[in-house]
Each structure stands twice: as C-alpha cells, then as structure tokens.
UniProtKB/TrEMBL annotation, chains A, B:
<dbReference type="InterPro" id="IPR029351">
    <property type="entry name" value="GAD_dom"/>
</dbReference>
<dbReference type="InterPro" id="IPR004115">
    <property type="entry name" value="GAD-like_sf"/>
</dbReference>
<keyword id="KW-0436">Ligase</keyword>
<dbReference type="InterPro" id="IPR004524">
    <property type="entry name" value="Asp-tRNA-ligase_1"/>
</dbReference>
<dbReference type="InterPro" id="IPR012340">
    <property type="entry name" value="NA-bd_OB-fold"/>
</dbReference>
<keyword id="KW-0030">Aminoacyl-tRNA synthetase</keyword>
<feature type="binding site">
    <location>
        <position position="174"/>
    </location>
    <ligand>
        <name>L-aspartate</name>
    </ligand>
</feature>
<dbReference type="InterPro" id="IPR047090">
    <property type="entry name" value="AspRS_core"/>
</dbReference>
<keyword id="KW-0963">Cytoplasm</keyword>
<dbReference type="InterPro" id="IPR004364">
    <property type="entry name" value="Aa-tRNA-synt_II"/>
</dbReference>
<dbReference type="InterPro" id="IPR004365">
    <property type="entry name" value="NA-bd_OB_tRNA"/>
</dbReference>
<keyword id="KW-0547">Nucleotide-binding</keyword>
<dbReference type="Pfam" id="PF00152">
    <property type="entry name" value="tRNA-synt_2"/>
</dbReference>
<feature type="domain" description="Aminoacyl-transfer RNA synthetases class-II family profile">
    <location>
        <begin position="144"/>
        <end position="552"/>
    </location>
</feature>
<comment type="similarity">
    <text>Belongs to the class-II aminoacyl-tRNA synthetase family. Type 1 subfamily.</text>
</comment>
<dbReference type="GO" id="GO:0016874">
    <property type="term" value="F:ligase activity"/>
</dbReference>
<feature type="region of interest" description="Aspartate">
    <location>
        <begin position="198"/>
        <end position="201"/>
    </location>
</feature>
C-alpha cells in the first residue's frame, strides 16, 4: 500500500492521524531549520513539514535533496498548520513527516508544472506527459470524462444502445479523404478508417436496434486547419421511427441535461431558426446569439440616392453596434482596415453614428439625409449612442464579411462570455450546394440525407432550392452537432446518387449494400452526431480543443511526442504488398 | 410521431386505449374473415387483429398484402385477447386495427428472422443487418452495452478517468504485426494502429492521471484463428502508486460487481494460484475450476516397475474422471484415439478403473499391483466408480495433452455449465519465455513488465526462472484479463530491452519517449486489460464472441457485408506515396 490518503483529502478532521502519502514534489521552501514541501497528486496538494527539532536527522537531511517533480512517499502525522491557507481544501493542515522514501528522482522538467507555464506549445507537446500534470490540462481531461459519462448515462436511460461499429471499413471517395490501411491477407486491397459510422448506424436501424449511440473516433485525412485533428471523437446517434421533431427533442434534452449537470445552468427551450433566416440575419449558419447585432437589409433605403457603390450592389446590409457611437475616427479606420484585410475581403465600409440627440453623422452624409439614416437605424435596431456599420456587394460574400465583423466586434466588446450558453437549432438546410469550381452540386450534409418531400419536384429544375430535413445544433457560434432524416428507400437513394453525379455502377460498388438493405424493410430513421472535442471545449469555456485531447497531433498530423508517423521496414512493406513511391 | 408505444409495453392495463404502433411484420395468419399479424420491434411483439366485421374493408384488404418484414404503422384500440399468451408481456392484449400504413415493403429475407434461423453463417454475415433483427444477436448487443455501462460506472465511481488515447500511432515491430496507415502529409511515413494503448497509459501515469481506464478498440494483423478478430475491444486500465495486491483487489471488485449486477450471482473472494501451480495442477495457465479432475503426478508410484513407457518419461501424470468407471472398452478406445489425434498428440493412454468394491482394473495390470493403483487413486483423488487416465512423456507436452483431455471430458460430462462462474487469479507468471525456434527469450507479457525484485539476480544466469509481477484473471477456462506491475525507471527498462535483444539504438528509436518520460518523475504503476468481446460472451453464457460484435469480420479479415477490404484508385495511392506491389 503506497498511500493511505491522496493529496487532496486531508483536513482539520484528520489532525493527529498517522498517514502515508505519495506524490510529486511541487516545490520546497528550505528555511534552514524548517523545510516545507508541497506534495502534489491528481487530487490536490498537501503541505509536508520537515522540522530540525521534530524530524529525524536523516529524514531532515534527505528532504533537502528533493528536487521539483521527484516522486516521493512519506509517513507522518497530520498536524494543524500555523499559517492556514483558505484557498485549498487541505489548507488547514500539514504533515509532520517521520519517514521519507524517494520513489523516483526527476530531471528538472523543461517547463514549469504550474497553471501558467513558461513552456511554449511545441515543447509542451513533446513532453505532453509533463503538460498533463498541469491543472489546466489535467482538469480538461477529467472534465471530458465527466461529460462523456453524462452523455452515456442520459442516452442509456432513454434506451439508446451503444454499439461499436468497425474501424476497418471500405474507402468511399465521396466526402473527405480517407485514411487507408493496406491488407496483408487480401493482396492489393485496402481498408479505410471511418470518417463516421454513418452507413453502419443506418444499417443498425435497418437491423431494428431502434436507438443507437456511440462515442467513437472518426478519421479524416484533410489538410489541418488550426484546431482540427486527423482523428476526432463524435457522439454518434441514430433513431428509427422518428421525425425531425423527435430527434430535436431528444438531443435538445441531452444538451439541456449537460448544461444543468455539468455547468449548473438551466436553459429555456432552444430557439429554432431556418438556414435562410440564419444567413439573412447573421450571415452565418452557426450564429452566436449570446448577443444581438442582427443584420438589417438596407437596399430599400440605400439604393434610392446617387451613391453608386450601394446602387450597384446586390445587397446593402448593416449592423448596429451597441455603444460604439463614440468610436474615434482612428478606431473606425482601424475597423475599415480590418474588414478590408484579405481574410475578410470587403472593399470598404460605410458607417453612421447615432448621436445621443437622435441625429446621425455618417460617412455618406453627402448622399443620405437624416430621414434615410433614421430608416437605417430603425431597420438595424440602432439606438442613440450606437454605431451602424454597412457593407455592400454580392449577397453571399457581403453577408460573410459582415458576419466576420459582427463576431470581431462582439469579441472586442466582451459580448462572447464563455460562461454564458446560448444554444439553438438551425433547420431546413439546403440539400445540395453548388461547387463553384466544378459547377456540380454536392450533398451539403451527406448523400443519405432526405430531401423535404414537398421540395422533391424542384430536384430537376432548381436543385439549389431543395431543402433537406437536416439540422444543426449551434452553441455560442459553433456547430456542435448536426444531422438529418435519412433516405430509407432504394428508389430515392438511387435518385440522389444520380443527382450527385454517381454512375449506377459507382453507386452500386460503393453503397450497394446500403441500397440492398433498404429493400428488406428499412424503417424511417434519422440521427445526428455531436463533435465531442468541440462540445467539451465549449462547455469548458475554452476556444481551442487541444487541451481537451490527451495526445493531440500538430498541424502536420504529427505526434511529436512519440515521433509518428515514421518509416517502417521493408519486410513490413513487402508483407503488405506495397512499395513506397515518392515522386 | 410514428408511434405512441413500442411493441413490448402494452398489457391489460392499456385495454381500450387508442394507440399507434410501428414495426416489422413478424408473421401473419390469414383465416379469411380474420387476420392476425405479429408486429415486432426491438422491444417485443404485439399482436394485431384485422377482422372482416370490425375492420374497415380497405384496411382489411390491405392487411392481406403484408409480407414478412414489411415495415408498417398502425392505429387501433387495445382489446383483450381471447386466447391469451402467458409467455410474452403483451400476451393478454391485441390491437384491433383501424388504420394501416405501409412504411416500407420488404423482399423476402434470405433467411428466417427467428431465434433459430435457417440461415448459415455466411449468409447471415452478408446480411448482418437482418441477422441483428434476430433476438439472439440483438440481445447480445444489448447485453454488451449493459456490461460496458456497468464497467464505466464502477470504475468512474472509483475515480478512474476514461482517457481517449490516439489511434494513429507509431509501428513497433515487437509483438504482433501492426496494421499501418500511410501518411499523405509525411511522405514515405506510416502511422500504425495500436495493438493496445500500453505506452500511452503508462505516460498518463507519468502525467499524474492516477487512475485511467478506457474501453478501446485494438488492432492486430494476425492470421485469424477461429473466433479471433483483427479489431477487438479492451477494457484497458492503469493505476499509479499501487502494488499488485491493489490492482487485484480493484479488478476483482469490478468482476464481482459485474457478476452480481448482470448475472445476479455472488461469488466469494477469487482463488489466487501461481502460474507454476496452475501448470502442475491443470496443465494450463487458464484453468477451468468449475470442476475438479486436478492432475496427480505419479512418477513416484509409476516408475518403480518394469513398464518402460513410464520409466523413460519425464512426467507421468493422471486425472480421476468422476463416475467414468463404467466406461465401456469402446468408449475408452475412443478416448485413446482422441488423445492420439495430431491436435492433442499423445502417443497412448493408460487407464485404471476404480471398482465399487475398492479394487482396480487397469490397462497395465501386468506391471502394477493393487497397492500401486491404490496410490494412483490416492494421488489423483479417485473414488470408487471413477476412472483414472494417465499420460506420460516430456513434462510440458504431457501436461498440455492431459489438460486437453480434462477439458474434453468435462464438456462430455456436462461439467462446463455456462450458468456457473468460477473466476480466479493466476499470478507470478514467468517474465520471459523461450522461443524454441530462435533460441531467444521473449517477454511473456510485454517488455514493460517488472521482474520480481527478488528474482532480478537470475536474469543473467537463469532468465527462464525470473518471475514477473504479472497476473491473469481467468474465468471458466478463459483468460479474460491480464496485466502487470510495470517498470518505472529508465535503468531497468534499458536492461530489459537489452535482455530482449534490442540494440540500444532500436530501443531508443522505438521507446525512447517512454524511457525519457521515466526520467521526469515516473510513479510506480501497473494495470491490466480485459478482453471485452470475450468477457461479454462468457458472461452471456456463450462460447463464441461473434454474436457479441455488431459487424464482425470473417477468418480472412473480410467484412462480407460491405465487401471490405477493396481496391482503391490510383489517385489515392499516388497521394499516399505508395504503389501496390504484388509478388
């Protein structure tokens, strides 16, 4: 038995108890005749005291040799501390040590094991096992566990069955790039790692499992943008005999449960807005609704004068920024530069200050009178003291630009409070989106998503207008989950593959098993998937997912700690019937 | 809303309720004026009645068109059944149908969706989604979910934290063959899929996570013996600041909890036997102790006469088979043939009947008198009415042969009752085992296992005698879990790699990160892993794991349902910097 207690649980009620503790030396303060050591483990910190007058001489001297991160075991008596620390649960006591056993020495760590460390990202990743000792990372991993447990309990209590689907499956060129795995036993053939268990969960519905979930790793071999990982975790769910409403209710319930159990926050019924409304109102299909600044479309009140920039624009659209009426000329110019950066791409920006006396002062006073500007204020909801910013141009691009500005201003104004949670559903996504490069339509969600029956007749004529029974859950400006009602009959699925440009042979080769399955009594079904990494980070009040992943990869897909990927030897390659072919 | 109730919940208390149900047509019995349909879903079966005199004519006629496995929705009234079925929860009622909606037609399934199906293994695998509709498979998957939930709850309540370790890691040629994944972003380099999260869980201990678990997929590219899968699931666990005793207690507690919660069975403290004892007593390191037939070593009482077969043997060893004294000559000859089969490999077998009057009749009466045979009986524990079977030869081989016979006889005698559970620990495994082909020693568990400190000095002189702090949990003749106390200092780990034949460079290239980690304050730690597939199958009273895996692969590692692995296209290969090279 290495310890009788952990380092987080002793308090005044344990005074005079003989205890054995084990852990890491967080720090030691040597005052000559007295030596205090902070002993740390996952559960907390307990202060040890070595006292020249009360501690055995050998032990006292040995304690002086302890360095940071040494692993030690001590026996001693719990005593009352003279200088109490009210900030930690063990702050009323300390351990007068009688025996000290160094279990393992430690080199000086390459960065400090403190909440605020001096180590940069790269060194922390290389020594991730040391980084995990730090509270921010350790607590993130414990938090993730707690969220995953709550998800499992909630869904299991609702009769969802967690089913493990296979990791060694078949490559399907549709969608993102697959990671593949050469088969030794099947020459020249490859498995693929799943981008999601999509087809398997649908087959489970055909198989009558009724309610499925799985917390499961998924894999996408994509060029990694910041904060993306080649392997990531989904809460994957599917239900049979349901309509969209049933699914929204179940997973709204789950999310509400998590917010309550994990964060102690009660939220109302989630707002539901359509994709079209989201795009018009926030320029974005994952709007952050913790704050307002909703878009006001100004074409009617901006295209009747001689301002050519607006008159030739497809869309003139503005937002009212609360309390920004007192921005200086320099601040405004800074924002204009910000929207003109290539990442945003606006060609300019018009502004109108809403003075406290109800008058307006704009950058386009030459073209617009107070009545016009009053209309702008009315439409954008601007109040005295606010500032209206207006962008114009092609509708989609302009909306995206104004959305970027809206988010940036909210951040600057402190309106994106990580302790506040504003979930919503975005529904009625388009079924298809136009790929501007190829001129072809792609499935916006995936090729198994059901079109709305009432829009089916538009498939031939106006495919871009067909809406899907597809929905996203959005939390604080992040899509945390999305799903759809699926196609469950072979004819519609075949039609969909046709519209997506599959030949009959391709469709059959890749998804024949699914279409076959639909012929043997497939129930109506649908589902969704949450991104667990993102969900946990947001619930944890963080912007980046990396600290919520024990061993993340860097932007080149490398694990710098174990140095993977790596070369493999020729015998392995030969067994796998492949050769390396570097161009 | 597709249904108001599921097909397993309506009973007499619901009579006169209007309900909506949805599900699959299990069967229909058309009596002309009356038509009964069994409607099935995951939760049960509810009988529907269509009655010429009470049902709308259109509905009545439509019902006659329903085939097996059609997916339908019905509305109707719960009424009392005339002929009640006490065997099912819904057996007191039926639904008088007023509306019938065919949600999806179905082709006739290629095998019957019944508990006892007419479908062979191959066809059931090809149409696994139909196989899952059958109770035995469906219930196995639900059972697996229940076991996994209980494991998670139990460990989580003990402060274990589930941490997801990465799937894209580095290939290490030691151990079984890795599946590898070519990296697109890192030319000529490969990830490997983990054979287990071994090094990561040890790093989590170095990182202070203290108690880790994970239910996790693992991968081994091995030639598949019956009932092995290339991807399988482990309950993987690790603890810091523990000795072997702590680990045995925790996971004995978990297993006892599972037996109680899942099976309603209370078991005593698990017996603990050493590897040496297990091999001497059962010829096997995973003994089935639901029954006796323990080995009796007979050298002393078999090598003092003129029977050359025994006199020249390293080991003479027997078992007493309860109640087998009345076996006919034919039965005995059959068993002798059985042990002489190449799979067992004995060269012959001696037997001695224990007559009811206390005398003996043996196949070697020429050499052994009644006193000798009395000693055999005493040592094997044979009683009047039993049969003693004796094998001889090289010790290890003979033990293995007698172990095979013991298991075969237990099966024939009905002593392997799947409803009985006899867990035990086997401890003190050898650290190393001799590979007879190469003449080299391999790690019996893995190269991270700690030798017993008191045996360390034997490493140079008698490596085969060094015992490890390694242990297996055995249940009903199956190893369901195994683990060890790990090495946690760099020097010992280096020494171990040296003894295992690694050069310093190889050790550093493959496990340098782990040895580095040990220098930064590694705590003593150890753990174990359970095979979830096997554990669930045994708890479920089954011999094979396949029905407890939703989508298993066949013995060639193929998923015959989705037809994977498969070829991939040249563009994919090129992006991955590899070529197919079939010899």
């Amino acid at each position: 038995m290495y310890r009788s207690h952990n380092c987080g649980e002793l308090n005044a009620s344990n005074i005079n108890t003989e205890v054995t503790l084990a852990g890491w030396v967080q720090k030691s303060r040597d005052k000559g005749f007295m030596n205090w050591v902070d002993l740390r483990d996952r559960y907390g910190i307990t202060q040890l005291i070595f006292d020249e007058s009360r501690t055995d001489k050998t032990v006292f001297e040995l304690a002086k040799t302890l360095g940071r991160e040494f692993v030690i075991q001590v026996k001693g008596t719990v005593i009352e501390r003279e200088a109490k620390n009210k900030n930690i649960p063990t702050g009323e006591i300390e351990i007068l040590v009688s025996e000290l056993n160094i279990l393992n020495a430690a080199l000086t760590p390459p960065f400090t094991i403190e909440d605020e460390t001096d180590g940069g990202e790269d060194i922390r990743m290389k020594y991730r096992y040391l980084d995990i000792r730090r509270n921010p990372v350790k607590n993130s991993l414990l938090f993730r566990h707690k969220v995953a447990m709550e998800v499992r309990k909630y869904l299991s209590d609702l009769d969802f069955c967690e089913v493990e689907t296979p990791y060694l499956i078949k490559s399907t060129p549709e969608g993102a790039r697959d990671f593949v795995v050469p088969s030794r036993m099947n020459e020249g053939q490859f498995y693929a790692l799943p981008q999601s268990p999509q087809t398997f969960k649908q087959l489970l519905m055909v198989g009558g499992m009724d309610k499925y979930f799985q917390i499961v790793k998924c894999f996408r071999d994509e060029d990694l943008r910041a904060d993306r990982q080649p392997e990531f975790t989904q809460i994957d769910c599917e239900m049979a005999f349901v309509e969209q409403e049933d699914i929204l209710n179940v997973f709204e319930g789950l999310t509400r449960h998590l917010l309550k159990e994990i964060k102690g926050i009660e939220v109302d019924k989630f707002p539901r807005i359509t994709y079209d409304y989201a795009m018009k109102t926030y320029g974005n299909d994952k709007p952050d609704i913790r704050f307002g600044m909703e878009f006001g479309e100004l074409n009617e009140f901006a295209q009747h004068k001689d301002f050519p920039v607006f008159n030739t624009a497809e869309l003139v659209v503005g937002i009212a920024v609360p309390g920004a009426g007192n921005y200086t000329r320099k601040e405004i110019d800074g924002l204009i530069d910000w929207v003109k950066r290539p990442q945003v791409g606006a060609s300019g920006m018009v502004y109108a200050k809403c003075n406290d006396d109800g008058t307006f002062k704009s950058s386009v006073d030459k073209f617009y009178d107070q009545d016009d500007l009053g209309q702008w204020a009315k439409i954008t909801g601007a109040k005295p003291g606010d500032m209206i910013f207006v962008l114009s141009g092609p509708a989609n691009k302009t909306r995206a630009q104004l959305s970027a500005l809206r988010m940036e201003l909210a951040t600057r104004l402190g309106l994106r409070n990580p302790a506040e949670f504003a979930p919503l559903w975005v529904v009625d996504f388009p079924l298809l989106e136009l790929d501007e490069d190829s001129g072809r339509y792609h499935a916006m969600h995936h090729p198994f998503t059901s079109p709305k029956p009432e829009d089916m007749q538009l498939l031939e004529t106006e495919p871009g207008k067909v809406r899907a029974n597809a929905y996203d859950m959005v939390l604080n400006g992040n899509e945390i989950g999305g799903g759809s009602i699926r196609i469950h009959d072979k004819a519609t699925q075949q039609l969909m593959f046709k519209y997506l440009g599959f030949t009959e042979e391709e469709a059959k080769a890749q998804f024949g098993f699914l279409m076959d399955a639909f012929q043997f009594g497939a129930p109506p079904h649908g589902g969704l998937a949450f991104g667990l990494d993102r969900l946990v980070a947001i619930l944890g009040g963080q912007e980046t997912i990396r600290d919520f992943i024990a061993f993340p990869k860097n932007n080149s897909g490398r694990d710098v700690m174990i140095d993977a990927p790596a070369t493999i030897d020729d015998a392995q390659l030969k067994e796998l019937h492949i050769k390396v072919a570097i161009q």
